[in-house]
Write a structure and sequence with these properties.
Number of domains: 2
CATH topology of the largest domain: D-Maltodextrin-Binding Protein, domain 2
Strand content: 15-25%
Radius of gyration: 20 Å
Shape: globular
Structural class: alpha/beta
CATH superfamily of the largest domain: Bacterial extracellular solute-binding protein, family 7
CATH architecture of the largest domain: 3-Layer(aba) Sandwich
Largest sheet: 6 strands, mixed
CATH class of the largest domain: Alpha Beta
Mean pLDDT: 92
Low-confidence stretches: 1-22
């Protein structure tokens, strides 16, 4: 699977770099990871790159690298230090350096990555960006993935007690804290290593959205899934450009890039996650995975376990001059409004 992904990634990069310059003044070397066939990449990140080139009439071209330039953990710093010119990074895996993005990573925030992504971008621009946590790079758009589910190899997980004792791969700090509080052993493992730790039995299960199970063909290792309405967690992705590289782009082209980034980019990339989750759930069912839906009682257990984690986050946010509870309320209001628009057909 990984060999095939590497081949496809190389083919994609070759296709991009072989295109004529058409007078391009700037080439942004973009770092990414995962399968090139993953919806987040194929109709999310890659499409964003195409839109940047179209919007700037070829003066700015996004070159997707043939292989990851390092672990996903260090992508923020690779962008900051211009090892790469641009890329996406996950604030939640950057060794506890970032706090405020967690407003969009808490349990039960919603079933639509498109709604959550647009809501997060609005909240980021209004409340979070001024705090300066991400000022070392230029964040041009952002996304959350879809609702995280519980997948494991050992048993159906229908209560907090069922999680106790399981070694669970976690993708970020927020869900890691929650898993530990429920008696599981949280193990941070980069997504690029998930197949290895599952196949070897290093972990018993993982927290991921449905799309990830399909993208990495993981159902054979994970016969049990607990479906969590709204997600047991979420994960934020920032699309960013190195500041020096950004300043080398003309003001007109920066404006053109932002026209296809910002909220428009968040909507498109979030939508790519939703498409992947729908297909991922179909894959899980087709593979015979036993799906149980989280009960109200189990949800109440999660909410009780998460309450002190949320309070701790609000206290840290206050230290950065942010009213965490007010920001959370604003985020939830945006999500509700966007979900209503999506259900009413006002958005894609």
């Amino acid at each position: 699977m990984m060999r095939n992904a590497a081949f496809l990634a190389a083919a994609f990069a070759a296709a991009v770099t072989a295109a004529p310059d058409a007078g391009a003044q700037t080439v942004l070397r973009f770092g990414w990871w995962g399968s090139p066939e993953a919806h987040f990449n194929k109709i999310g990140a890659f499409r964003w790159g195409e839109q940047v080139e179209e919007a700037t009439e070829g003066r700015v071209r996004v070159e997707f690298l043939a292989s990851p330039p390092g672990s996903p953990v260090v992508f923020h710093d690779l962008i900051r230090d211009r090892v790469i010119d641009a890329g996406y990074y996950i604030p939640g895996i950057a060794q506890g350096r970032f706090i405020l993005h967690q407003v969009a990573e808490f349990p039960f925030l919603g079933d639509s990555a498109e709604a959550n992504s647009v809501a997060y971008w609005r909240i980021y621009k209004t409340y979070l960006e001024p705090a300066g946590e991400h000022s070392e790079v230029v964040v041009v758009t952002a996304s959350t993935h879809g609702p995280g589910m519980i997948h494991n190899a050992r048993r159906p997980v229908e209560s907090a007690a069922d999680l106790a004792g399981l070694k669970m791969r976690v993708p970020g700090a927020t869900i890691g804290r929650l898993a530990d509080s429920l008696g599981a052993t949280a193990m941070f493992v980069p997504f690029t290593e998930v197949t290895q730790v599952l196949s070897s039995g290093v972990v018993d299960g993982i927290f991921v959205p449905y799309n990830a199970i399909a993208d990495m063909s993981l159902a054979r290792y994970l016969p049990y899934t607990t479906e969590v309405p709204g997600g047991i967690y979420n994960l934020v992705f920032h699309f960013a450009i190195n500041r020096e590289a950004w300043n080398e782009i003309s003001e007109a082209d920066r404006a053109a890039i932002m026209a296809v980034s910002g909220e428009a980019g968040a909507r498109m990339i979030g939508h790519s996650w939703d498409v992947g989750d729908r297909e991922g759930r179909e894959y899980v069912l087709a593979q015979g995975v036993k799906i149980s839906r989280m009960s109200p009682q189990f949800r109440a257990e999660i909410e009780a376990a998460f309450a002190p984690i949320r309070a701790e986050w609000a206290a840290k946010a206050a230290g950065l001059g942010i009213d965490g509870e007010a920001v959370m309320a604003a985020f939830q209001a945006e999500v509700a409004k966007l979900n209503a628009e999506l259900e009413g057909g006002a958005a894609r």
